[in-house]
Amino acid sequence: MTVVSADTRPLTWRLQHGEAITDIKTYESLEGYAAVHKAIKQMSPQDVQKLVKDANLRGRGGAGFPTGVKWSLIPMGEDAGVKYLVCNADEMEPGTFKDRLLMEKLPHQLVEAMIVAGYAIQATRAYIFLRGEYILAADRLNAAIEQAKAAGYLGNNILGSGWSMDLYVHTGAGRYICGEETALINSLEGRRANPRAKPPFPQIAGAWGKPTIVNNVETLCNIAPIIMRGADWFKGLSEGKSPDAGTKLYGVSGRAKRTGVWELPIGTTARELLEVHAGGMKDGLNLKCWLPGGASTDFLMPEHLDLAMDYDTIMKAGSRMGTGLIMVVDDKQNMISVLRNLEEFFARESCGWCTPCRDGLPWGVKILRALERGEGRPEDIEQLSKLTRDLWIGKTFCAHAPGAMEPLMSALKYFRSEFEQGIAKDATVNG
Q1: What are phi and psi of 87, to 5 degrees?
Q2: Which domain of life does the protein's organism represent (predicted)?
Q3: Structural domains of the chain sorted by starting position, each given as residue range(s) with its CATH number in brackets
C-alpha cells in the first residue's frame, strides 16, 4: 500500500491505520480534534472564516461555490441570535458515493468538521441531514457524537470557551430534491421537501427563519486540515494541476475494471482516473462517453479524457464537474436506454412544485420509451430538443429539471443517429 500523510491526503490518510476509525481515542491519536482545540483556543470565529476563504475551498457538493464566501454572508456579533449549521449528507446523486465513505469510515472527522464550522459561524445547533438509506453511517455518526459530547467537544461551554452547540443526526425519508439546500431545510423543519424562493437566502433566513449555513460532507471535512496547516498548504495540494485548491474525492462507476473512490489532487485528469486508478474499461469494452460528476451533468466524449477534472475546465468543455465521480458508458450500451434510465429517475424524484418539471419530465420519459422500443415518431427528436429548452434554467422553480436536461441535451448533440434509429420504419409525420 502506498504510504500517504496528512500533508498530502488530508481526507483519507487515517485509513492506513484501520479499515474504519470509529473510536474517539484512536481518532485523537491521529491528530483528531486538534483543529477544535486550535480554533477555539487560538482563533476568533472571524479568523476561522478568513482562513477558509483564503484557502479557496470550493463546495464539494456539485456547485463549487466558495465556502468562505458563503460563511461571510452569515450575520455575526452578539445580537445575531440563534444560528444553525446543516451538513448536507443526502447523497442521492446517481453514481455518487464519496460522502458515504467519509461518514462510514471516519465519522469523527465529520463531527470535528461540524464543531469547527459551527464555531466559525457561532451556530448554536447543528444537524447532519443524512440520506435515510445510510444506516451504517447513521449508527457510526450517532456513536461519534456521543463520544465527542462525553469528551467535552459538544454541548455547553465547549472547552471552556463560553460557546455552546449541540449536534444531531437527522435521517431523511429519501428524496433526491433534498440535495437542494432550501428543500433540505423544509424537510428538516418537517415540511414537504419543496425548494424555497430565493432571496432570502438561507444565510439570512434559513431553518426556522434563522440564519443557516448548509455545506456538503466532503466540503466540511476539509475544514480541520485547513485550520491545522493553513491556506497556502491547501492551495498547493493541487500540485499545479488546477487553479482550484485542495484534493478531491474522485470516483468511477460503470463497466470499469476497478470502480471506487480515490483522494487525488484536484485537477487530476479523467484519463488518469479511468485508466490508472480504475484500470480502464472491462475487457472487450470501449469507452463510448462519460458523465463527469453524476447523472445531472452533460456527457463528454473519449477525446475529453485528458481534461483536468476541475470546475472551470469541465465547464468550458460543455459540462460540469458536479460531484467528481465519473460514470462511464461503454460501446455496447444503447444511448436511448441509458437516457431513459436516467430520466426515469429524475421524473420520479421531481417534487411536483412547478408544472414544467412535474409534467415535462414524464413526457420526456414517454418519448424515450417509445424510441427505445423502435416506435418513435419523426417529430419526437425535435420534441425532446424542445424539452431541453423549455425545462432549462430560469423556466423552472429550481435546478432539478435543468439538471435532468443536461445528459439529454448532450446525448442529442453527440448521438443523434441513435435517436433516429428509434423512429418506427413506417412512421410518418402527422398532417
Answers
A1: -95, 125
A2: Bacteria
A3: 13-234 (3.40.50.11540), 250-330 (3.10.20.600), 335-421 (1.20.1440.230)
Residue 257: strand, helix, or coil: coil
Tens digits of residue pLDDT in 107-149: 999 999 999 999 999 999 999 999 989 999 999 999 999 999 9
Tell me how far apart the alpha carbons of residues 327 and 311 are, in angstroms, rounded to a whole number.
17
Q: HSE-up of 272 (CA within 13 Å, CB side)?
A: 13
Long-range contacts of 380-385 (CB under 8 A, 24+ apart): 380/419, 380/422, 380/423, 381/412, 381/416, 381/419, 381/420, 381/423, 384/408, 384/412, 384/419, 385/412
Burial (CB count within 10 angstroms: exposed 0-12, middle 13-18, buried 19+), residue 288: buried
Q: State the chain's maximal CA–CA distance in angstroms.
A: 79
Neighbouring C-alpha atoms within 13 Å toward the C-beta of 193: 19
Which DSSP string corresponds to 14-61?
A: GGGG-S----HHHHHHTTTTHHHHHHHHH--HHHHHHHHHHTTPBPSS
Cβ neighbours, 10 Å, residue 393: 11
- Closest to 148 measured CA to CA, from 116, 173, 182, 177: 116
Backbone torsion region of residue 352, taken as left when φ is above 0, otherwise alpha when ψ lies between -120 and 50, otherwise beta: left
CB 23 within 8 A of CB 234: no
SS3 337: helix
pLDDT for res 430: 47
Report the b/e string of 158-175 with b at 16+ CB within 10 A.
bbeeebebebebbbbeeb
